[in-house]
Amino acid sequence: MQLELAPRQLDLFRTLRPEPARAALSREPLPTPAAEPKPKLLSRHEVLARARELGHRIAEALGPELKVHLSVHDNGSTMVSFRRQPPLLKVRVHHMFLDAPDQVVRAIADYAGRGVRKAGQVLDDYIASRQERIRALPRRPAPLQVRGRCFDLQALFDELNQRYFQGGIRARIGWGRQNGRRRRKSIRLGVYDHKAREIRLHPALDRPDVPRFFVEYIVFHEMLHQLFPSDRHTGRHVHHPRAFRDRERAFPRFEAALAWEKQHLHRLLRG
Ligand SMILES: [Zn+2]
Fold it and tell me: Which one, 54, 124, 208, 221, has least CB within 10 Å?
């Protein structure tokens, strides 16, 4: 039996993470949903071991006359496909089949190896029952827009990271999407998503009349959220614990940034 696992396909198991939050931008960390089911993490080793076992099980069900070449994939379109070129049988299956019960493995063998069409029904049923799992599979995070018209957030982040954090903050950063609403009552200038390790800035900040130090301050603030996660005090989340506040005040233009925000907030609200 030959086994094929493209490295690209395995990326899936290293990048398990929720979809980037679409929540409105906020300078508060996103609340952590209490009971979110976690997709199962499989190491590359585990995936290989399971794929190898599945290949053996299919080969066993077919007998020695066919040589099984199995590959597994994680895309959602075709769950099972095969090419029969005796003595070789090439089978491509979705990851969901890695821990399929015997009946389903026999159905793969019948369907792909022996051309038993009605075995396809068993596979269809199994696929339908596992749709939940497919939906739960994490997607590759969408690339973030780092370059705005006025500010390159990655450059800004890297500079702050070196200057204030010894390069220790690990996060992605990007501009949030403009949501079209022009008139706002409040605006959330930045948000840090702990799970995704992702900082987003409100696009209203990407303007020539917004000073660089103010954008830096917002990024700095969001970076601090990684360093000082919110505290729980008698069941209440404290988003900016004492240590966070102290460290924030160490930002050289902290007072100036607050003053600028106070003075120009109305402009940012107009978008
Ligand atoms: Zn905050």
Answer: 208
